[in-house]
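Could someone model cytidine-5'-monophosphate with this protein?
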Amino acid sequence: MSNRVVAVVPAAGRGARMGGNIPKQFLSLGDIPILAYALRTLESVQSITDIIVVIPQADQDYCREDIIERCGIRKVTDIVSGGPRRQDSVRNGLMAITETPALVVVHDGVRPFVSKKIVTNAVHVAMESGAALVAIPMKDTVKRVNQQGYVEGTLNREELWLAQTPQVFRYSWLMEAHQLAEAKNLEVTDDAGMIEQLGYPISIVEGSAHNIKITRPEDLALGEAILSCQKLEGGE
Ligand code: C5P
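Reply:
Sure, complex below.
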């Protein structure tokens, strides 16, 4: 069996929630763009052989020159254009895979603080079980609220986990899942959502509260705080 492990990094969102003209994945955090952090970490994981970055068509040259080359990322084998939804962008990334890998690691380009250890664990678990989802246990109490704004109930916190990325899957499972999503017109916000539809088991790998998704302007300030924290700790 192939020992290739391909990382697909969807980073083609327009960042509407962030406001402004620059997509959030290209905003600077510390002294480099947000996307560069995730690429550096994926690059450092030994088992990952190739990285495919999915970005808006118009930003391809910028991404190649100012992020990938400037940060010395050498495992990027392709830069492809995104689609209207995240799942379309991931699919475009999958379509660019040329040699069948064992696993695909899907990681959001706007999650800069995932650690090498978490990615390595997720790859290891998926190698054994076929699918690994990085997630953290729910700390807050979660309510189900109806459209009129009234509470309908309280969910059992013990059973709730917040999904993060990376999410790592056997290549054949992920391809099957994307084909099913296309055939059945499924709308999902993560890849595990598609694998669930097929009924394949997905193992949980514990993530980190630092592994935030930078979506809104206030997340940037949080990102700067996490960055300072990591500098003090000497990196994760
Ligand atoms: O905010 P959201 O969960 O949609 O974004 C998660 C990741 O998916 C981000 O890195 C974003 O750039 C990417 N994305 C994409 N193509 C889209 C929408 C989101 O690559 N059409």
